[in-house]
């Protein structure tokens, strides 16, 4: 889990005007870059995910085959491995970590891809959830570079309802007085983290998932075992509260329309995408519902909507359900066989 | 708002074995009981609702017409007007208020209806949300009394997902250290109440309601105005935290199958209902989704599923949206014109 590289971003000025001095990206790669640099896949991380949490979709015989492709997984700024509240020195540390937009994330990743590897074309960008948001942003920020995109269970603009869901998540964490405005000490606000986890639990999987007690497929022995073992365990597993809130801000404010040059016009930003696209919402995702992506696709020129069927909701894209994984993998294989949008 | 009566329940022993000494129900009535006592409607309250919160569905020219019907609105135990954590003396006060089941609610309401008014037949029981749960319970506990039921946006058994949603609501409130295990003083845990409100906000209305900014129809001027003005205001409006948690327990543990005699068999309990029934979930209700009520109706013998169309989600049954109100009112009118299930 420590097999990552560090890319020095130097003085990194954010879209909102802060400068993180000595900022850095943690990243890892799978496979080898070929001679004409035509086999590049970029696969950003999701909310609180680390590069190794993406590995379920990478492997020999899968679409993301490291024998064939050079797969770069950059960790999101804020996730604890790249520059984050938890690892930035004062004065931009902890609760003072600056607001990072999705645009900022792709500025940083673009520097990595071009300056370290000299890459000019990307065969595919893909990602889950906030990784999907970064995928859309890549295609809008660098239409001349990105041949194909496959965002799954995520959106080009965070919907208002999704924003509200995150307000609940945030409020539960910060209601714990131990949080202390982000200036907690060595003792973390674990009551707040556990509350956040319980709030999240109702959103992450669908109503039908709970009705069917599908947590049993994940090895949990009761509802409470799932709430404690999976959900509370998930957020207590080294996930720094300030990091969670930094990424939450990024998520809440995601909108490709805020890319410089589009002046808030999300539809124009979507229309500017050249990449061949397969957009994959999950049928019962409660915060990225399929109708939102239907809207997104309606503003894109070379995009197909392909809904992941089933009851796993948002976590269809987490790699826990073999059926959903097979569905996503098959779509990626098909997409990689299609002409890119720049041909 | 103080126009209610008090019915003395005496020593009230709950299903779980506690005895509330000097328990009472607050209730109000609309219209006059006719000579043969054939014009009775019972309309229980919802989670944190008070009797006056039901008045939007009562009125001259509406189905629930006080010129024609005698409408009894009993306040739920726990709602602050009937026996509740906030008004019960020690030792069963506050955090020690006993667990009240939906079955207990109907035991108390049955005493009221029979002992105060000598009523033997009820033309209709109806209610929203937890009021719908009480409606189902009436039909299961007293099949020989209830001619018709019209539960809307509620269920005979709280689904597991609904239970999880409520875990999030509860966790957000209790994460506030001012809550102090329920032993807060005159200063209420308002940070926790506001957190609870923000968690609730994402669930109460649908994704599409937020997409369409339908809060504007309620007079709110921005999303934040809606979150503070409607949601935080809602829960800060005299809603005692221990009362909220008492009712939440009742809700989480709702199941007509736990009626004595059914031994946990919800389907058998549903099959025992004799009342003519129209069951009305809302199309986009996130915690009482229509498929759950489709399941319920499939186990009833004289029931119709009629989905309230539109984007208001759970709050379709709150009386705020004229279209939804008209839909519910029309269904009640139709149901009241049908033969009762005891004819």
TrEMBL record, chains A, B:
The keyword Protease does not apply. Residues 63-150 form the AB hydrolase-1 domain. It comes from the Bacteria. Keywords: Transferase. The keyword Transferase applies. Pfam families: Abhydrolase_1. The active site is at residues 129, 285, 314. Gene3D superfamilies: alpha/beta hydrolase. One of its GO terms (molecular function) is acyltransferase activity, transferring groups other than amino-acyl groups. NCBIfam families: PRK07581.1. This is Homoserine O-acetyltransferase. It comes from Nonomuraea polychroma.
């Amino acid at each position: 889990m420590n097999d990552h590289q560090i890319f020095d971003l130097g003085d990194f000025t954010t879209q909102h005007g802060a400068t993180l001095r000595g900022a850095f990206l943690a990243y890892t790669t799978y496979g080898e870059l070929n001679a004409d640099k035509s086999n590049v896949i970029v696969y950003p991380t999701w909310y609180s995910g680390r590069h190794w949490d993406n590995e379920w979709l990478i492997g020999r015989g899968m679409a993301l085959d490291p024998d064939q492709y050079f797969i770069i997984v950059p960790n999101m700024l804020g996730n604890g491995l790249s520059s984050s509240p938890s690892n930035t020195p004062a004065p931009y540390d902890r609760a003072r970590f600056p607001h990072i937009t999705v645009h900022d994330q792709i500025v940083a990743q673009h520097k990595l891809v071009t300056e370290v590897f000299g890459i000019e074309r990307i065969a595919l960008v893909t990602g889950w959830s906030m990784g999907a948001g970064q995928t859309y942003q890549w295609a809008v920020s660098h239409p001349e570079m990105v041949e194909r995109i496959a965002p799954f269970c995520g959106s080009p603009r965070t919907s208002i309802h999704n924003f509200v869901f995150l307000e609940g998540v945030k409020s539960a964490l910060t209601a714990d007085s131990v949080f202390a405005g982000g200036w907690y000490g060595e003792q973390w606000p674990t009551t707040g983290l556990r509350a956040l986890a319980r709030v999240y639990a109702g959103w992450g999987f669908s109503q039908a998932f709970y009705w069917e007690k599908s947590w049993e497929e994940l090895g949990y022995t009761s509802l409470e075992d799932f709430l404690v073992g999976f959900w509370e365990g998930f957020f207590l597993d080294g996930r720094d509260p300030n990091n969670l809130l930094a990424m939450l801000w990024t998520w809440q404010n995601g909108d490709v329309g805020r890319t410089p040059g589009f002046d808030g016009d999300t539809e124009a930003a979507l229309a500017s995408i050249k990449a061949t696209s397969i957009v994959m919402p999950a049928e019962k995702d409660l915060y990225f519902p399929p109708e939102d992506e239907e809207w997104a696709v309606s503003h894109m020129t070379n995009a197909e909507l392909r809904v992941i069927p089933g009851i796993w909701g948002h976590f269809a894209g987490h790699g826990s359900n073999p059926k959903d994984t097979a569905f996503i993998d098959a779509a990626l294989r098909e997409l990689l066989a299609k002409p890119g949008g720049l041909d």
